Amino acid sequence: MFKWLFKRKNYPDSYKTYLAGFKKDEKKLLSETRFVVFDTETTGFDKIEDRILSIGAISVLNNTINVSDSFEIYLKQDVFKSESVKIHGILKGGNLEKVSEKEAIEKFLDYIKNDVLVGHHVGFDMAMVDRMMRRNNLGKLKNLCLDTGVLFKMSKHLVYQENLKNYSLDDLCEELKIEKVDRHTATGDALITAIAFQKILARLNKNKNLKLKDLL
Amino acid sequence: MKNSIAERIYDFIKRFPPFDLLKDEKLEQISKEVKIIYLEKGKIVFNVNEAYHDHFYMVRNGAIGLHRIKGDKNEMIDICDSGDIFGLRALLAQENYTLKASANEESIIYGIPINVFQQASENNKKINKYLITTFASNAFTPYTQEQSDEIFNDYIPNNNQDIQNLKTANYTKKPIICQEDATVKEAAILMSKHGISCIVIVNQKKHPIGIITNSDLKHKIATGKFSIENSVKNIMSHPVVACNKKITVAEAQLQMIKFNIGHLCVTKDGTYNTPLVGVLTRHDIVLSIGNNPSVLLKEIKRANRTKSLRNVRAKAHNLLKAYLDQNIPIRHICKIISELNDAITFRVIENAIKKMETPPPVEFSWLALGSQGRKEQLLYSDQDSALIFQDVPEDKYDETQAYFLKLAGHITKSLHKIGYEYCTAEMMASNPEWCMSYSNWKAQFENWIVNPDNKAILLSSIFFDFSRIYGNKTLVNNLTDSIFNSLEQSSHLLSLLAKDILQSPPPLGFFKQMVLEKNGKYEDFFNIKVRALMPLIDAARLLILTHKIKNINNTALRYEKLSELEPENKELYDSCSYAFKALLKFKTKQGIANNDSGKFINLETLNKEEKLKLKRCFKPIREIQDLLKYRFKIINLS
User: Fold this and answer.
1) CATH homologous superfamily for the domain B291-490
2) What is the C-alpha separation between B323 and B330, in angstroms, rounded?
3) Phi, psi (rounded to 5 degrees) for B106
4) What does CATH list as the number for B4-151?
5) Chain B residues with CB within 8 Å of chain A CB
6) Do residues B116 and B57 touch, judged by C-beta distance below 8 A?
7) What are the tens digits of pLDDT across the range B186-205?
8) Do B522 and A181 touch (CB under 8 A)?
9) Residues of chain A contacting B108 with CB distance shorter than 8 Å
10) Residue A27 within a domain
11) Shortest CB distance from A191 goes to which of B5, B33, B413?
12) CA nearest to A39, candidates A213, A195, A188
């Protein structure tokens, strides 16, 4: 405790407000929990070298996505890799409005608050965001976090659970019959992931007594 | 800030009325405020008498059923598909909802805020007109239905003849036509190619000038009066009787009787001086009135679209309700409903093959498993299916399997649309594990029989009850033969199955209380499927396998066969057969009442007589389990 206090840096107000959100310990029902489903597009897969180009996120509350409560941001980055452009389609110049990392992360924290984060193979996106926060002298993300890849495996019938296949987002679309629209844009993938997430929850919740802790 | 999701919503909603009438910037405003709502099957959007929401709804994926509830009767009035709007009338009238809307399948809908919509559509005359006409045409139905209910009470199942008569008739929209210079032979070839009973002869402006029907061919050609090289003008009946698109069923019938004809030409303005838009046949009339199995079967055979099959299945469901109300023997009901189920699957497969770019590369057969395989599927239930294809050289295997997987994908998707849920265990032919060549299937069964593991036991209950729905017979017969050969060599699996059946205790505990579920949503409910039906089904299958009887899948029939084979146990088997039928009926009735699978029964809702009836059915379960214990020499289990 003491050590923690000692180590505490002088964080900017935005991060302090974000941290303060976690102090309240409230127990919510699944239907009252706000899930923020997000995805990032990056210049590549190297957590240190590569940079986030855009973040897309939407919130799911009681099986409803409010389009007005969605998040989409593009970042100014010095790192640029032309070979990744064919995947995400974000040009170095382009006419998209772009912001600095600092501004992006402030807005993102303000958007996610203390809610539960959801993503497909979310470990990578979390790591990328954490790296970005560290570059900007902030601490780590504190949110609970769910991976649709893992949840999907849980939802499979017992007969198939020994199968250790790693399901890609495309596999999920295929198996859960989800239309692939705007694949490989951060917001598009976030929406697809959100729909997959809800379909998986419905499958896991056949007995109607699913709780958040069953998912962690 | 850019909002890509709003842009996609914009792209979607602008394709449908009334949004196609709005200006782009107004649509953009609306798109940004939409809610995307995910609904599991059966989830209710709004209920009767519920206060109106802030949103009206548009279906994005899936389908929403609109139901009218009267007393404990729940009648589906309409199904909204992708692009359809619902729940708007109550908002505009500022009244409570008069209908119930619930997800007919897993669906995604858009919630569109009424205030944003109203602001955007203010002073838009076209939209106002659109809304008024939509409601004017919709308002008619609920009113007349309410009236008819008071006249006919529930003794007459679904007999809304009067409304049916006032409905506009459904005519065939793309009629087969030929030009006036065609020969009789050409016309007849067209008719036989399309399998139709009449062809309309049109002039260059597409006005109908005459009609040739089967009976013209019979009387004028087959008798030798005219040769087949004659012009169609020589034998056609003319002038045609034309009618308007909006003709009601009753009017159409009158016209047909008056002119003693079976076909009406539907034209643009209702006279024969305007282009032909359709043909209305006596058959179309029968279809719009009829709700009996043979009419439904015919309708299935003609259905080219999944949507029409879905309607037929919904009608079959009404038929089932009526039969149960009338106390028709359950065996008879099973027969009819499974006929209809099988015919629907058959038609779905036929349509799916048409969707493929090439015909199937080799022979195949489609198997129904589980309850459909046993011909016991009354309510909508999960899909369980498998596909066998003929052996192919090794280098062609992957390609062939890929073809059938794609085909099966189309089929399971259509079946899902019709109302059969995907199997949670993915025991469906669209799964590579259940779509294999004959030799692989044979090897798979041999393996299950010779080296049974837990998975084999879990799956055998489904896989030993298969029946062929479509395709090659020999493949299936050979597979059955090989299964019985393997069973002859090893009885290990059978004794494991017996053990497995005895694991589930008889449904009565100490003090003759029914064993209730202990966790989940259904705590303190009685699971009639697992506790009562499955033990009977499993025991029948096991016993019939030990007797090596092929091709009897139905549980009741299996017990009847058993009592023939073992006269010394006749009494027990007969009581099992009786108990099975009674329990199945019980489950089906529960399912209809609660609009679910009927598996879970709340004992508190049963009266004393029903409880006693239920308990009486349990006695044979205990007795048949004792018989298995003795026969398979299983001890220390209970």
Assistant:
1) Beta Polymerase, domain 2 (3.30.460.10)
2) 9
3) -55, 130
4) 2.60.120.10
5) 1-6, 8-9, 31-40, 61, 106, 108, 111, 413, 424-426, 455, 458-459, 519-522
6) no
7) 999 988 888 888 899 999 88
8) no
9) 195
10) no
11) B5
12) A188
| Residues of chain A contacting B424 with CB distance shorter than 8 Å | 157, 203, 206
Q: Is the pLDDT of residue B168 over 80?
A: no
| Pick among A34, A53, A65, A189 to test the B interface (most B CBs inside 10 A) | A65
CB distance A203–B424 less than 8 Å?
A: yes
For the stretch B108-164, pLDDT in tens is 999 999 888 888 887 777 777 777 766 655 433 333 333 333 333 233 333 344 444
Hey, what are B407's tokens? Answer: 């085909």
| Architecture of the domain whose range is B177-288 | Roll (3.10)
Residues in chain B: 638
| Cα nearest neighbour of A197 on chain B | B38
Contact list, A159 vs chain B (CB under 8 Å): 425, 455, 458-459
Contacts of A202 in chain B (CB under 8 A): 38, 40, 106
B599-611 pLDDT, tens digit per residue, is 888 777 777 788 8
Question: Is A149 domain-assigned?
Answer: yes
* Chain A residue whose CA is closest to B41: A202
Average pLDDT, chain A: 85
Are the C-beta atoms of residues B386 and B466 closer than 8 Å to each other? yes
Q: Which residues in chain A have their CB less than 8 angstroms from residue B425's CB?
A: 157, 159
CATH number, domain of A44, equals: 3.30.420.10
In a domain? residue A1: no
Angle CA B210–B214–B275, to nearest 5: 25
Q: Which domain holds residue A186?
A: 33-215
Contact A67 B38 (CB under 8 A): no
Asked whether B59 and B15 are in contact (CB, 8 A), the reply is: no
DSSP codes of every residue in chain A:
-HHHHHH-----HHHHHHHHTTTS-----GGGPEEEEEEEEES-S-TTT--EEEEEEEEEETTEEEEEEEEEEEE--S---HHHHHHH---SS-SS-EE-HHHHHHHHHHHHTTPEEEETTHHHHHHHHHHHHHHTT-----S-EEEHHHHHHHHS-GGGTT------HHHHHHHHT----STTSHHHHHHHHHHHHHHHHHHHTTTS---HHHH-
Mutate which: B34, B38, B426, vs A, most A CBs within 10 A:
B38
Tokens of B372: 């459909």
Report d(CA B452, CA B495) in Å as an integer.
Answer: 11
Nearest to B520 among A70, A199, A209 (CB): A209
